[in-house]
Amino acid sequence: MLSQSILTGVRVLRTEARRNFGLAAPALNKASDPIQQLFLDKVREYKQKSSGGKLVDPNPDIEREIKTELDRVAKQYGSDGKTDMLKFPEFKFPEVKVDPITQSAN
Known about the structure:
Layout lengths: L1 H23 L9 H16 L10 H17 L30
């Protein structure tokens, strides 16, 4: 009984290892296909350029379009021009004073 459960476990591990090899192969960074190598090179290049959370290789047309869209959204949602529309709003809830209820003994 123990040997059968061990054999079942070995079969499961072999199947899982075979399945996960396909996922781990790109992580090895050794592409056998030239197309795969070009893709990996472009992904690495994009990763280097994309630092800082800004657009990668923006041109003036794209920047102008983004500014136009942000202005439109600010106008639509009632911004006064000073509010940063990319920042999550801060909510302040003042403490409400509740009058104590007095009970009279009858």
